[in-house]
Write a structure and sequence with these properties.
The structure holds two protein chains of two kinds. By secondary structure, chain A is mostly helical. Helix content of chain A is about 50%, strand content about 5%. Chain A contains one helix and one strand. By secondary structure, chain B is an alpha/beta fold. Classes of the chains: A mainly alpha, B alpha/beta.
């Protein structure tokens, strides 16, 4: 039962969410950026 | 009354506990040494108990407990990974998600920690404060360092999100400057190659590092072209299409196999030229990134000193290149650079916030007590053990002990050396060490095959009197924790005929006056020993030098392959009797192998200790 719920959750919710998110901005920032001078993410000021 | 903070790392790898008094580490140990399970990740209850016993306190005396990672932030990264990798990662999703979502699951690790501590029945446990993974690394790198201010660089596999972080340490504060995030990780890249070359991830990386000098970096350009995009400042992104870790536990996939001409090497199978060359290649790329990051650290902080931590800081060859490049005046590496050190760092971060001062700054010394922060066994305890078990031994005074051990070493004997407080971190530093004569051309082979029962390509490392280090090694600074690699000095190198020898045959070529500790590329992972850090060890080196003229000894950890470093006299005696160690110095007691009764065991211990 739990396996089925996870299965449905994954393909009906997580997968579409992932595909939509990647259209806008990849949550994992995977693509390389040849124009960027750096990949550093500055830390926020406290 | 001291302000005591206890730090904990647990549940991923290298669980540990560390106790800090007014900001100064007073006790620290990895759980593996107690449980005898290498890299043990379970809750470190024995390590915690040891820390409390060492200080003679209960939880009622402890002001705060610190945990080395933020479980809720980590959960958000796991979720982002599962979403980002959809729809291809269902098995990973199915296996991993429930452990995070359940009521006392991984999102609430800090509460689990508090519960487990309370269950020890040693007083009322204060609330557990969470410190981020990289902040814990950075704190472990900077606060015990000798520097008033420094650049701090932490590079590892991953914490919550950050994989590479740059900090500016000043006084008792650490300011975060910039970071790189999962899935872009130098530690993961190195682990991927570790896996592909048939070694165990999270424990086999340093074997890959040791393999590199046997090969040529034939694949480095391919790696730079396809796997990792490196910017001039050392920051980078990986091409995740070649890796599998977003989908589960395997590190590399079919794309990786196609790139490097075939499937991964299976564990324990024969090593081929491809593995030597892959090791050399990923090592070259790792060094390039670390050097560029080090330069950036200098530019962005303006500091002339660097502190390092995180698993990649255990890559002592890369550390050595940073020193050789002279980017900084001096660098300091946290001896427990991996996750065990996170326990110490988390405790120190909290201690600094509570008003601890760094009194050691300005004395030129660090606050790690030579990394000798674990349990010791005094002569009475050792005597009781030897007598209770009918073990033949002689009790000697310090001068005689040191002299007899030095004589034995000079005669080619291999000596187990068990003295004082146990080391914190992966290296043995003269408290739980196996020692040998580095001038002996047969020593490396003898130790690999008959003592450690491990792969024969693996080099051994030297300990040298600090005052004589420059005669033997091209080292620009001290290296008390064996985390810097340097070239053997020209004066010690020998003429080697051109012979076109490659691969493992390079082992048989004698290239220096100290062959047992000279790796095939003339490098050595050096420990400089001064008088104050470990006085008896220093006296031993002096005695060996008086006897032989050589101020260097082979120093390898006191354990067989796959086993954690020994903790107790019994652990030491067991290892002594299972191997070809000739003499054992347990505190003031000297044991001769020839005088020992026959050793029998009920089962085959070599089959029982899992290979690492």
């Amino acid at each position: 039962m739990r396996a089925l719920l996870l299965f449905l959750l994954y393909y009906l919710v997580v997968t579409p969410a992932g595909l939509v998110a990647r259209l806008v901005r990849d949550p994992l920032a995977r693509r390389k950026d040849p124009d960027a001078a750096t990949y550093w993410i500055p830390s926020e000021k406290p | 009354m001291s302000d005591l903070v206890l730090g904990i790392s647990a549940f991923y790898h290298d669980s540990a506990a560390a106790l800090v008094a007014d900001g100064v580490p007073v006790a620290a140990a990895q759980e593996e040494r107690f449980s005898r399970k290498r890299h043990d990740s379970s809750f470190p209850s024995q390590a915690v108990a040891y820390c409390l016993d060492e200080a003679g306190v209960s939880f009622d005396d402890i002001s705060a407990v610190a945990y080395y990672e933020d479980p809720r932030l980590k959960f958000r990264r796991v979720m982002a990974t599962l979403v980002g990798a959809a729809p291809t990662a269902f098995p990973f999703f199915r296996d991993v998600l429930p452990s995070w979502l359940s009521r006392d699951g991984k999102r609430h690790t800090d509460q689990t920690v508090r519960r487990e501590l309370q269950a020890l029945g040693r007083g009322r446990v204060p609330p557990v404060r969470v410190r981020r993974h990289h902040e814990s690394h950075a704190a472990s790198a900077f606060f015990p360092s000798p520097y008033d201010s420094a650049a701090v660089l932490c590079v590892d596999g991953v914490g919550e999100w950050a994989t590479t972080t740059l900090w500016h340490g000043r006084g008792t504060t650490l300011k975060a400057v910039a970071e790189l995030r999962f899935p872009h990780s130098l530690g993961m890249l190195y682990s991927a190659f570790t896996y592909f070359c048939g070694f165990k991830v999270d424990s086999g990386e340093y074997k890959l590092m040791g393999l590199a000098p046997y090969g040529r970096p034939r694949y480095a350009d391919l790696i730079r072209d396809r796997l990792i995009d490196i910017k001039p400042d050392g920051t980078f992104r990986l091409d995740l299409r070649y890796f599998e870790y977003l989908r589960g536990r395997t590190m590399t996939g079919r794309g990786f196999e196609r790139l490097f001409g075939g499937p991964r090497r299976l564990p324990e199978s024969e090593l081929t030229e491809r593995e030597f060359d892959l090791a050399a290649s990923v090592q070259e790329v790792t060094e390039e990134v670390m050097l560029k990051l080090a330069r950036t650290a200098r530019e962005r902080t303006g500091e002339s000193r660097l502190c390092l931590a995180g698993g990649v800081a255990l890559n002592c060859v890369a550390n050595g290149k940073i020193v050789d490049a002279g980017i900084f005046d001096e660098i300091w590496v946290q001896p427990a650079a991996g996750d065990a050190g996170g326990a110490l760092g988390a405790a120190q971060a909290v201690a600094m916030e509570r008003g601890a001062t760094r009194d050691h700054v300005g004395t030129g010394r660090d606050a790690m007590s030579g990394a000798l922060l674990g349990p010791a066994y005094d002569d009475d305890e050792i005597a009781a053990y030897l007598t209770a078990n009918g073990i033949p031994h002689r009790r000697l005074d310090d001068e005689e002990l040191v002299k007899q051990v030095a004589d034995g070493l000079a005669e080619g004997k291999i000596v187990g050396w068990f003295q004082g407080r146990m080391e914190f971190g992966p290296r043995a530093l003269g408290s739980r060490s196996i020692l040998g004569d580095p001038r002996d051309p047969g020593m490396q082979s003898a130790m690999n095959l008959k003592i450690k029962f491990r792969e024969s390509f693996r080099p051994f490392a030297p300990a040298v009197l600090a005052e004589d280090a420059k005669d033997y090694f091209d080292l620009r600074q001290d290296s008390p924790y064996m985390l810097l690699v340097a070239r053997v000095a020209a004066a010690q190198q020998l003429e080697v005929p051109e012979s076109g020898v490659t691969g493992l045959d390079l082992l048989r070529v004698r290239r220096s006056t100290i062959p047992a500790v000279t790796h095939v590329d003339y490098s050595a992972r050096v420990q400089t020993v001064d008088e104050r850090g470990n006085p008896r060890y220093h006296r031993l080196l002096q005695a060996f030098k008086a006897r032989t003229g050589c101020p260097v000894l082979v120093n390898t950890s006191f354990n067989v392959r796959g086993e954690p470093i020994v903790r107790t006299p019994h652990d030491a005696y067991t290892c002594f009797m299972r191997t070809n160690i000739d003499m054992l110095a347990l505190g003031s007691f000297l044991l001769d192998k020839s005088e020992q009764p026959a050793w029998t065991e009920k089962s085959d211990w070599r089959a029982e200790i899992p290979l690492d």
